[in-house]
Amino acid sequence: MATAAIFSSLRRRRSPSLEAFLSPVDLSGLPLVQTLAAISTEIISSFSGTRFSFQRRNARSLIRKIEIFLVLFESLAESRWGSTPSSSSSSSSTALLCLKELYLLLYRSKILLDYCAHSSKLWLLLQTQSISGYFHDLNQEISTLLDVFPVNDLNLSDDVREQIELLQSQSRRSRLYIDNNDESLRRTFYSFLDGFEHGEIPNTLALRSFFVEKLGIKDSKSCRSEIEFLEEQIANHDGDVEPTGSVINGFVAITRYCRFLLFGFEEEWRIKNNNPKKKSKGDGNDGFITVPKDFVCPISLDLMTDPVIISTGQTYDRTSIARWIEEGHCTCPKTGQMLVDSRIVPNRALKNLIVQWCAASGDSYESEFVTDSPTNEGFVSGLPTKAAVEANKATVSILIEYLADGSEASQTVAAREIRLLAKTGKENREFIAEAGAIPHLRRLLKSENAVAQENSVTAMLNLSIYEKNKSRIMEEEDCLEAIVSVLVSGLTVEAQENAAATLFSLSAVHEYKKRIAMADQCVEALASLLQNGTPRGKKDAVTALYNLSTHPENCSRMIEGGGVSSLVGALKNEGVAEEAAGALALLVRQSLGAEAIGKEESAVTGLMWMMRCGTPRGKENAVAALLELCRRGGAAVAERVLRAPAIAGVLQTLLFTGTKRARRKAASLARVFQRREHAAMRAGGYGFVGDVNGNRDGGNFTTDVSVPMSISISVPVL
């Protein structure tokens, strides 16, 4: 289907070369005429019987012009124009150029007619004036072409010549035509928008008359198709095209409201009897696009529209990190490091990548963590207006009624729509929760309907992104336990993954971390998901475990629930190794955690692998964990660390190429080696020589160790 972007060329006065439409061929003489006749015939047969919803007069007028051109082409073909030497004159050369220009005009006419025949009714209505302008431009170009067309030099019959001359006369007199009925409907649509803008919900009868009787949108499916098309226009919006993305957003909200107001939940919701543990593709069955994790803000979980870098090197969306700092936080939300200062620097490289990805995806993004604005201009133009907010509020009130008292199918549809409304914008997330959606969604978490459960837990995830909703969810009776229950035994893999992501979102609040960790089977289920889940599931699980690890009182629970073992096992998984090492670096700060990690056979080798092959942040976390293992994990663990193969070379590399924190930790670990090596040499040999108190029985190793290793590293002072 054609989109509005195609018509950027319709206002050109200079047409592109033929190669823009066809692979290079010798289009001249008789072959060109035959091609033009074939294209004209195709256009006429395709659109002469079409009932255009809008632009009827303009479309019929253009088709009649093409019919006259077809008569011309057939006459030239019958006379075999261009196939004999006699036709090779200056007039023939002019005619050839005109026919080639006609070739382009026909293709542009075909695109425009196809657009008017198959596009969204609402979009055509909103574009009434612009599309009328496109038709007028084509008429003007036809008039200009006919002014130079050598009609008297082509040996045409009198009848054909008269038709061409009549067409020429009509084209000269043509004026821009905007259908009064189309314009009246457009103004009516805008009046609905204005009503919502002023807090007044339009009359139901007026809405029914507009959508059903005048536009012919007679069922929920048609209404949803209109919504999807309008959302696509927001995604592909050009800043120079009216209406703006924010206005289109308002029309989407109004149409969504009318979908449920006028048609209820007549949409048939077919629940497939799939294997309950089978992971569905995307989000539901709609083929939604997954946003690359690097494009998602760690705070809001939305697609970043204005990525910025803070002093720790982490990237966040400007609005989210600015709010974080304004609330008095002085640490990095992701790493927990202290912020050196509050300066933020635009990450233009990442922003360009996001814009390119959005343009390449070419669709509205039905992901849980994205905005609907996939172009740079759309980031601003797609912001919600008051009208959109008010229309969405009216829609939510209808949805919650069905959540409370509707049938199982209606509740499933309502949960899905709330999930989609909550996927973007704090305004939506705020008023959905204020309207009372959380208790009803909590009840659906226990549903035996797999689709209903998945929609409800995903809706809960989206709502939890808004800071105030975290407390609403945690204070809702039995809600945390219900989320954990989905994590443990959800009916679909996607539901389990989204439950883990919800726990991650909720655990961003420090006072909730202990309560979440203490929930029955929570840590165990996260550990199992980290070990056995899909790549996305592993990511959700490790980030949740990382957040829980930042609370010092959760250490014993992490050990008992298998969290430590799963984190150690995740060190060799590139997708989650960085977060796993970060969580271990937090847990190892406590003696209990250091002891538990030290007992894991693969802990030291896994951390060493991270130091060699991990990301810069992963290397930083790994060396920090190894240093704390030496200090708190006991003599045997420290000796394993110091005996690790090639540790000297890895440390030396890290000292010169690591992050500032990694270099500092590597320097501290190198000093441990040097001091204990010197102590071992003074003791007359290699081997374990006791702790700092002179004990030789391998008791608590609290400071440094000595192993048979020679390390020659110049340790910088950091």
UniProtKB/TrEMBL annotation:
Residues of the U-box domain: 290-364
Stored Pfam families: ARM_PUB, PUB10_N, U-box
Pathway the protein acts in: Protein modification; protein ubiquitination
One BP annotation, GO: protein ubiquitination
Organism of derivation: Brassica oleracea var. oleracea
The protein's name: RING-type E3 ubiquitin transferase
ARM repeats: 436-478, 521-563
Record EC number: 2.3.2.27
